[in-house]
Design brief:
heterodimer; A: mainly alpha; MetI-like fold; 2 domains; 12 helices; B: alpha/beta; Rossmann fold; six-stranded mixed beta sheet; four-stranded antiparallel beta sheet; 9 helices; globular
């Protein structure tokens, strides 16, 4: 076989030195550059915040320590709810929702991947469910459940507190997200795992429980935690039903005192709640990525 | 004959338009080793998968110990408990330790007590020289070690028959030997095996019967001596020339 030598390979010696002016700074010079640029940028920001009149207004409106403390402790004489009394409502709402979401999401994912013809109506319902609740804004679901159930006269279901309706709405919406995340995780397990498990004579259910799901859950932990972070924040939406939680207390404070510092306190509460989880999720994802790089 | 373990009769398997097996008939007797040879895509893997009902066949019949597997009353899970299968890509369970990989089938499919199986599992690991690695996870093992674990994982079920699907094809050439040595041991101790392989020397040494498949047709079958030295068909001769 003959090849045109020009096509096969070039005889020229290429020049590999960069033609760009700037190079990435490394070592001590890099550190010095990073320090200098940080001091300049953050210094400028603080200067604006602390020397201008606009900065002063901003600090008084959003970051007044006195107002923040008042919002935190509340004041019955002024009709102010305490933010610190609301935090447990948010916490039990998201803890309960997360447990329910995990169970319901798993059940829906499981139904959607079954193949039995008898289960077809359930598959249709599960698909309709995920389509619906992934598409409808959570705020609307909160209102439909929270305003709707009490007037329906469904006995026990119609006599719950706003926070319980909040948990129902959060569970309905987030189960649809989580079901899809888990389903994607199940599909990510290589088919050989299924073949190997079935070849050992394991039933379909045992294969799912002992071989497929443990691997699927491991891969979906980071996206699952992401959804849980969103869920924790979205407990704030339940405030429109009048549930006495952080956001509601902050909102009352804002509309009574006309100062935004209470909203900042509420924001800080959510940050303290979510940042550790965000960091942990990032850590898990980095570890997962490192492992996959080693594996390839 | 009463000692027929597995019998395929004019088995046809299609994937859509593609006919992968076109009327394959084959018998496997107790203590017999049959090697399936043939190019990739000739239907070897499909044949093995049909044999343990991982695939359903479109025509013909398969029987295990004289019982027709296409009968509606047959429980595929029971069938598979008597047939061990080992894959090209090992397919060990990455979330379980080596020992747990081996225990999974006996404990969960056969419902045997963990304490009872544990000792057997450790003996199997001893046999392949990996007793010390019992608590390691599969990704800590070399390819050859993983494949040997996969083989003893299927042996732990005490199967009547082993199906091996190109078990050395994914291995580094230096690791092929240790796996083939284990299979030789098994053959000498009378394990009934149906082996799809590209290792012609191994087939020549170990097989009682060699069957050549081409495009879903079992072209010819015979002893290794007759197939490798005096192939009757032009197609077999050409294939053997290409692989040697």
């Amino acid at each position: 076989m003959t090849l045109d030598p020009d096509v096969a390979s070039s005889d020229e010696t290429p020049n590999l030195f960069t033609r760009r002016r700037s190079r990435v700074l490394t070592g001590r010079r890099g550190l010095a550059a990073a320090t200098l640029s940080s001091v300049l940028v953050f210094g400028a920001l603080f200067a604006v915040l602390f020397t201008t009149s606009g900065g002063a207004t901003l600090r008084a409106d959003f970051f007044s320590p006195h107002q923040m403390w008042l919002a935190w402790t509340g004041d019955p004489r002024l009709g102010l709810l305490a933010i610190r009394d609301g935090i447990f409502t948010n916490i039990w709402m998201f803890l309960l929702s997360e447990a329910l979401v995990l169970a319901l999401g798993l059940a829906i994912a499981w139904i959607r991947i079954t193949q039995s013809s008898v289960l077809l109506p359930f598959r249709i319902m599960a698909t309709a469910y995920t389509d619906t609740f992934r598409g409808v804004p959570l705020l609307l679901v909160v209102m439909m459940v929270g305003y709707g159930l009490p007037i329906l006269n469904f006995g026990f279901l119609s006599r719950q507190s706003p926070a319980v309706y909040g948990v129902m709405a959060l569970t309905l919406t987030y189960s649809s997200y989580v079901a899809e995340v888990i389903r994607a995780g199940i599909f990510s397990v290589p088919n050989g795992q299924l073949l190997a498990a079935r070849s050992l004579g394991l039933t379909q259910a045992s294969t799912m429980r002992l071989v497929i799901l443990p691997q699927a859950i491991r891969t979906v932990i980071p996206p699952l935690l992401n959804d849980f972070i969103s869920l924790q924040k979205d407990t704030a939406l339940v405030s429109i039903l009048g549930a006495v939680e952080v956001t509601r207390a902050a909102q009352i404070f804002q509309s009574t005192v006309f100062n935004e510092s209470g909203l900042v306190v509420a924001a800080l509460f959510f940050l303290i709640l979510t940042i550790p989880m965000t960091r942990y999720t990032d850590h898990l994802m980095a570890r997962d990525r490192a492992r996959r790089l080693v594996g390839s | 004959m009463s000692d027929i373990v597995l019998e395929l009769n004019s088995v046809v398997k299609r994937f859509g338009e593609n006919e992968v097996l076109r009327g394959v008939s084959l018998q496997l007797h107790r203590h017999e080793v049959v090697c399936l040879i043939g190019a990739s895509g000739s239907g070897k893997s499909t044949l093995l998968r049909c044999a343990n009902l991982l695939e359903t066949i479109d025509a013909g019949s398969i029987s295990l110990f004289g019982q027709p597997l296409q009968d509606k009353r047959i429980d595929p899970d029971l069938v598979r408990r008597h047939i061990g299968m080992v894959f090209q890509s090992f397919n060990l369970f990455p979330h379980l330790s080596v020992l747990e990989n081996i225990l999974l089938g006996p404990v969960n499919a056969l419902k045997r007590k963990r304490e009872d199986v544990n000792e057997e599992a450790m003996e199997l690991l001893e046999r392949i020289g990996l007793r010390a690695r019992a608590n390691d996870f599969p990704d800590r093992l070399s390819g050859g070690q993983q494949q040997r674990v996969a083989i003893v994982r299927s042996l732990a079920m005490k199967p009547s028959l082993l199906l091996l699907d190109e078990v050395t094809s994914a291995l580094d050439p230096t690791l092929v030997g240790e796996v083939l040595d284990l299979l030789r041991d098994l053959a000498h101790s009378g394990t009934t095996m149906l082996i799809a392989t590209h290792e012609m020397n191994f087939a020549r040494d170990v097989a009682h019967q060699v069957a050549y498949l081409e495009a879903g047709v079992l072209v010819e079958q015979g002893t290794p001596a007759s197939i490798f030295s005096h192939p009757q068909h032009e197609a077999t001769r050409k294939f053997l020339e290409r692989v040697s």
